[in-house]
Write a structure and sequence with these properties.
The complex is a heterodimer of chains A (about 300) and B (about 475).
Chain A (H helix, E strand, L loop, with lengths): L1 E10 L2 E7 L1 H6 L5 E5 L7 E9 L4 E7 L3 H7 L6 E2 L1 E6 L10 E7 L2 H14 L3 E8 L8 H6 L3 E6 L6 E2 L2 H11 L4 E5 L2 H11 L5 E5 L15 E4 L2 E4 H4 L2 E3 L5 H7 L4 H13 L2 H17 L4
Parallel strand pairs in A: 8-9, 8-12, 9-10, 10-11, 12-13
Antiparallel strand pairs in A: 1-2, 1-6, 2-5, 3-4, 3-7, 4-5, 13-16, 14-15
Chain B lengths: L5 H6 L10 H4 L12 H10 L7 H5 L6 H9 L3 H9 L5 H7 L21 H14 L15 E5 L3 H12 L3 E5 L8 H4 L8 H13 L3 E3 L10 H5 L6 E4 L5 E2 L12 E3 H10 L18 E5 L3 H12 L4 E6 L10 H10 L2 E4 L1 E8 L5 E14 L5 E14 L2 E4 L3 E2 L3 H5 L25 E3 L2 H4 L4 H21 L12
Parallel strand pairs in B: 1-2, 1-4, 2-3, 4-15, 6-13, 7-8, 7-13, 8-9
Antiparallel strand pairs in B: 5-14, 10-11, 11-12
Helix pairs in contact in B: 3-5, 5-6, 5-8, 6-8, 7-8, 9-18, 13-14, 14-15
The chains are: A alpha/beta (about 300), B alpha/beta (about 475).
Chain lengths: ~300, ~475
């Protein structure tokens, strides 16, 4: 059982959840993730560790309410508990001095980009963060990135804020005018694929943080298979970061739809509950967490 | 005990395990085997010849005093039988169900020559279930603490067996489990209908009663390293029993189509995550009316074939590259699978998996094989029959061809030497690794094997951990012989 120390909304349907997990906080390095379970009967979902405070024993997770588990998780408040948090998992990002590093984050992907951008800046890189969202309220963490001395280029699809258009257009401009040593892409699969195409002609080292479906997160199940350079890799133990120019993004996008029918059914169940039943479900989640014998 | 003439006993057939009707059980997750009745158990025990030199014991990896426990059963002393078993085996309810008895104790029973070996596995299970059902386990005696502590990494059969022995000797034991629930392969791999999870739970609760602590979500190598366990965490020794959890795939075109599962993923979704229940939060592909092909011939392949039937699959075929007699699965599992309607395609090997334009599996392309010369394992090697290739329609394929050692822990511990197969290098007789204070056993050492062998390795390591803790010196620890 892992107590939630802080929880707040940072965008529509996006919550910042700070969890007490001292051992994980101590070990975390940028690029790694945890596996979380929200209910005693719940599924295991991977979430990137956006920040860690080793002294306070806290890790920060960002969660977007898109499925049943993430929706339930989004409704939790400070003082509530997560049933399970396991990690840190995955290989850490390769952080070194690349000269100028560009970090491209789309939507919630900015939360994945955030710790990488900070680590790159700490390693002496000049870091440019190109962060995109559908509209203004979906551009995440701009202030936090800027506070870390990172140059931020916000983009919105609808032009309601920052630069109008996709992050890839902004990226093309940056690499045309700058000597860029590395590009990290984190976000929706089509965006990462598009970033890879932007940098492919110039051959700039480009890293994508992949987000396949996972179960255990420790290499045991192989559900998170991705193809990189024609070879099958497990994102959980071989990744989650891979050479974006070698990744089969189409395959990743397809495999991520495996359980779409199931997920939408479960969301319908959740949405069909009236207010009182929804409250009851949430109370059950909280109550069960409190009753569950701790570890 | 009633006196029955030996001649009459010799005429009796081997006890037949009562089981759910195949047609009924193929659509539920309730345990297939229902357990011997007391009458059956008594008669079966009386059938035992009580050999002067019981060869069955040699066939048992942990050398249970089989003749003695069976003698107790014959006399109706079930508690006494349990005491005999408990001297050598700590998880009889599990081993009675999942051991390959025909290759072990029953295979070395003298009555095996007459094709009716004593049903030792069934009797072991009967004893374990009976004492559990009626609460006949001896009370936990207070143990004098030794002041030493051991970290056990992994809560599968190796870790549980190791922890139990150490705790009984008064050492403080804490088990570290990476998943959210302890039991390892016993909970994520072996299905409910073969090994009810309540049995695993009660075995683990038995360990807790001995004072063993279990910490879940603890990924050793990541959350905490082995070095830290021995250093700042203050453990005097570490046992590594993390299993062989890295599934092998076919290495053919199309293995990443949607609908292609490793057995580990499929079984984990269904068993550990409960995807067969209506209220499950974890999905598994809807198998209602679907065609499933399973690759492999071991127990995991049988589990992977029988589970889809229970999830409503219209047809399940096992594609195995050798013949039935080379299959490594327990004979009982193969028979059960056949009775339930699993179809076996022998002497075929996948050359390609076929999919549609949306990336979903739609079939498998199989190469017919024939048996050639024996290979290293002594089994005849399957050789392709040139040009004999055919397609089989399939909606889901489950790959159950084994596991490589999981690299997560070894990769983060440079002091732990690995073999060229990625398993941990250990001294077989003692379970000692190349890192002082660290012992290992089970599938992480042997590669994918059986529950009982892992248990045996856990116990060998526990014994040498005790000698190490007594002596306190790594280098001078006396070597022992492996059982």
């Amino acid at each position: 059982m892992y107590r939630i120390a802080e929880a707040d909304s940072i965008a529509p349907d996006v919550r910042r959840i700070v969890v007490e997990a001292p051992k994980i906080a101590r070990k975390h390095r940028a690029g790694q993730f945890v596996i979380v379970r929200v209910t005693p009967n719940g599924e295991r979902i991977p979430l990137t560790i956006a920040a860690a405070d080793a002294n306070a024993g806290l890790i920060t997770l960002f969660v977007q309410a898109i499925g049943r588990t993430t929706t339930l998780m989004s409704e939790l408040e400070a003082g509530d508990h997560l049933v399970d948090v396991a990690g840190p998992l995955g290989r850490a990002s390769e952080i070194k001095d690349y000269g100028t590093a560009v970090v491209v984050g789309g939507g919630l992907g900015t939360a994945i980009a955030y710790p990488i951008a900070c680590a790159l800046a700490d390693a002496g890189n000049r870091v440019i963060a190109i962060i995109g969202g559908r509209s203004r309220e979906y551009v995440l963490l701009e202030d936090q990135l800027a506070a870390h001395g990172i140059e931020v280029i916000p983009c919105t699809d609808d032009g309601s804020y920052g630069r109008a258009g996709f992050v890839t257009a902004a990226l093309a401009d940056v690499i045309a005018s700058e000597d860029v040593g590395v590009v990290f892409a984190t976000g929706p699969v089509p965006m990462m694929g598009a970033v890879a195409e932007v940098t492919r002609p110039s051959g700039i080292e480009t890293v994508a943080s992949l987000n396949p479906i996972m179960v255990d997160g420790t290499g045991m199940c192989g559900g998170c298979r991705v193809e990189v350079g024609g070879e099958t890799k497990f994102a959980c133990v071989d990744g989650p970061e891979f050479d974006a120019h070698q990744v089969d993004f189409e395959l990743l996008a397809r495999r991520n739809t495996s359980y779409r029918a199931f997920e939408s059914g479960r969301m319908d169940d959740l949405e069909s509950l009236d207010g009182a039943h929804h409250e009851q479900l949430l109370a059950d989640v909280r109550g069960a967490c409190a009753a569950e014998p701790t570890r | 005990m009633i006196k029955v003439p030996r001649r009459a006993l010799n005429k009796l057939e081997r006890a037949k395990m009562p089981e759910q009707d195949p047609l009924v059980r193929a659509s539920n997750f309730v345990e297939v085997n229902e357990g011997l009745t007391p009458e059956q158990a008594t008669v079966e025990a009386m059938r035992c010849l009580q050999c002067k030199t019981p060869t069955c014991i040699d066939g048992c990896p942990v050398n249970i005093q089989i003749d003695q426990f069976i003698d107790r059963v014959a006399h109706g002393d079930i508690r006494g039988a349990a005491d005999v078993i408990r001297m050598d085996s700590l998880l009889p309810a599990i081993c009675g169900r999942v051991c390959p008895q025909e290759a072990q104790c029953e295979g070395t029973c003298v009555l095996d020559k007459k094709n009716k070996p004593i049903a030792i596995g069934h009797l072991e299970r009967y004893v374990a279930d009976t004492v559990r059902r009626y609460g006949l386990e001896p009370p936990v005696e207070p143990i004098e603490p030794t002041g030493k502590s051991v970290a056990v990494v992994g809560s599968g059969p190796a870790g549980l067996a190791c922890a139990a022995d150490l705790a009984k000797s008064g050492h403080t034991v804490r088990i570290f489990e990476a998943l959210h629930q302890p039991g390892g392969v016993l909970v994520y791999g072996i299905p409910e209908f073969r090994l009810p999870k309540d049995i695993v739970k009660s075995e683990i609760n038995g360990l807790r009663a001995l004072g063993v602590e279990v910490e879940t979500n603890a990924i050793i190598g990541r959350t905490t390293t082995v070095e830290e366990l021995l250093g700042e965490e203050g453990y005097d020794a570490v046992f590594v029993g993390v299993g062989a959890g890295l599934p092998r795939f076919l290495r053919v075109e199309g293995e990443n189509f949607i609908g292609v599962y490793s057995a580990n993923e499929f079984l984990t979704r269904v068993n550990l995550m409960g995807a067969y229940r209506d209220d499950a939060e974890t999905p598994v592909l809807d198998l209602t009316g679907k065609r499933v092909v399973v690759f492999g011939g071991g127990n995991t392949a049988m589990d992977s074939a029988r589970t889809p039937l229970r999830l409503g699959a219209a047809e399940v075929r096992v594609a195995y590259r050798r013949t039935e007699s080379e299959m490594p699965a327990r004979v009982e599992e193969i028979h059960h699978a056949m009775e339930e309607g699993v179809v076996f395609d022998f002497l075929v090997s996948p050359v390609e998996l076929l999919g549609d334009e949306d990336g979903w599996l739609k079939g498998v392309r199989l190469q017919r094989m024939e048996l050639g010369e024996p290979d290293d394992s002594g089994r005849r090697r399957p050789v392709p029959i040139e040009g004999d290739i055919y397609d089989l329609p399939a909606d889901v394929a489950i790959v159950a061809i084994g596991n490589a050692p999981n690299p997560l822990l070894p990769a983060t511990e440079p002091h732990l030497e690995q073999t060229r197969w990625g398993t941990l290098a250990v001294d077989e007789a003692t379970g000692r690794t190349t890192m002082p204070g660290v012992f290992a056993g089970g599938d992480i050492v042997t590669g994918g094997a059986t529950v009982i062998l892992a248990m045996g390795a856990g116990r060998i390591a526990a014994a040498s951990i005790e000698r190490y803790l007594d002596a306190g010196i790594w280098d001078e620890q006396p070597a022992t012989t492996s059982k």
